[in-house]
């Protein structure tokens, strides 16, 4: 926790706030002309939906190796480094990257109907995303430390999350791509329920044949426990509880009802549904 420190500066772009230390207007502007290649693989997600988990799976499907990936976020400009989009411009194919950008802010090449890129959208139910974001914001100094759980869950529902803005806008924006054959949608809850078949689905989408040995390597090295171990060793902290339904330990009945109402309003008729337990 960092309660006595100045809140970190945020930068507003197209109605969404970004932590100024990690995202700059210049990088977001650059997205308009960032060239997506036919052989790129892009993981798209609302923050805290299982991005790193999917990244690790995809990295290992593509590499066949046990070594850990170093996830690269398209729109990020890590302090004291060059912007990631510049590094990516110079990275030889095939490239793997992730983005938390909303659909309309992403490089046009990603969503153009003529594209050949492979995009994997990871989706997770909003209540668990909200809880995961709460702890994440407490741990990272470039994010504002939530005043309280009550305030955080209200801000989440009001669409005030850094990087992603409004959860429903974010998810439904990308959901528009659901009939595009270059897009695969994978739910966190389905990965939890049957990891083996999720990995097979992702591999098939990437047109990679997996031997049993390769599949087992992925299942073992991307399990919650192995990822916790490797990430802790490297000083990263994106692995927390890694379960479906932790929201029940945080939401009051009233907060839950408010979420349910907004969920019903925004998801009605979209064909998108989530498991909450
Ligand atoms: P919790 O905070 O609910 O535990 P992201 O990578 O998009 O930031 O998502 C982080 C969430 O994914 C965290 O959720 C984290 O624990 C979970 N996660 C990371 N690796 C996982 C794994 N191997 N299995 C299940 N969940 C995992």
Descriptive overview:
The protein has 277 residues and is an alpha/beta fold. The chain has a single domain (10-267), classed as 3-Layer(aba) Sandwich (Rossmann fold). 41% of the residues lie in helices and 10% in strands. The strands form 2 sheets. The protein has a 4-stranded parallel beta sheet, sandwiched between helices. Adenosine-3'-5'-diphosphate binds at residues 45, 47-53, 128, 132, 135, 222-224, 227, 238-242, 246.
| Mean pLDDT value | 95
Compressed to H and E, one letter per element, the order equals: EEHEHHEHEHHHEHHHHH
Number of helices: 12
* Attached small molecules: adenosine-3'-5'-diphosphate
- Unreliable spans are none
The coarse silhouette is globular
Tell me the Rg in angstroms.
18 Å
- Give the number of domains: 1
Protein name: Sulfotransferase
GO molecular function, one term: sulfotransferase activity
Pfam family, one: Sulfotransfer_1
Keywords: Transferase
Short description:
Pfam families: Sulfotransfer_1. The protein has 277 residues and is an alpha/beta fold.
Compile the SSE list and pairings.
Elements: E1 10-13, E2 16-19, H1 25-30, E3 41-45, H2 51-63, H3 84-89, E4 96-99, H4 108-111, E5 118-123, H5 126-139, H6 149-157, H7 167-175, E6 183-187, H8 188-193, H9 195-205, H10 212-221, H11 224-233, H12 253-267
Parallel strand pairs: 3-4, 3-5, 5-6
Antiparallel strand pairs: 1-2
Helix pairs in contact: 2-10, 6-12
The protein binds adenosine-3'-5'-diphosphate.
Adenosine-3'-5'-diphosphate binds at residues 45, 47-53, 128, 132, 135, 222-224, 227, 238-242, 246.
């Amino acid at each position: 926790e960092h309660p006595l420190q100045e809140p970190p500066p945020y930068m507003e772009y197209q109605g969404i706030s970004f932590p100024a230390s990690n995202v700059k207007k210049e990088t977001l502007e650059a997205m308009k002309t960032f060239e997506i290649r036919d052989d790129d693989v892009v993981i798209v997600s609302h923050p805290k939906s299982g991005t790193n988990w999917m990244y690790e799976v995809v990295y290992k499907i593509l590499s066949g190796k046990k070594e850990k990936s170093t996830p690269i976020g398209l729109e990020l400009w890590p302090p004291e480094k060059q912007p990631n989009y510049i590094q990516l411009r110079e990275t030889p194919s095939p490239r793997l990257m992730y983005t938390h950008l909303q659909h309309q802010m992403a490089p046009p090449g990603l969503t153009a109907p003529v594209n050949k890129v492979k995009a994997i959208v990871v989706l997770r139910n909003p209540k668990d995303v909200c809880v995961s974001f709460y702890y994440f914001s407490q741990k990272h100094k470039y994010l504002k430390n939530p005043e309280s759980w009550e305030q955080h869950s209200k801000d989440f529902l009001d669409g005030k999350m850094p990087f992603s803005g409004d959860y429903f806008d974010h998810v439904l924006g990308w959901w528009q791509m659901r009939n595009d054959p270059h897009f695969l949608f994978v739910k966190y809850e389905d990965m939890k329920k049957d990891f083996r078949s999720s990995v097979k689905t992702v591999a098939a989408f990437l047109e990679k044949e997996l031997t049993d040995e390769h599949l087992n390597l992925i299942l073992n090295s991307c399990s919650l426990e192995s990822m916790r171990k490797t990430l802790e060793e490297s000083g990263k902290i994106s692995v927390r509880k890694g379960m479906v339904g932790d929201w029940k330990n945080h939401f009051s009945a009233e907060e839950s009802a408010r979420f349910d109402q907004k969920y019903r309003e925004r998801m009605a008729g979209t064909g998108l549904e989530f498991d909450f337990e």
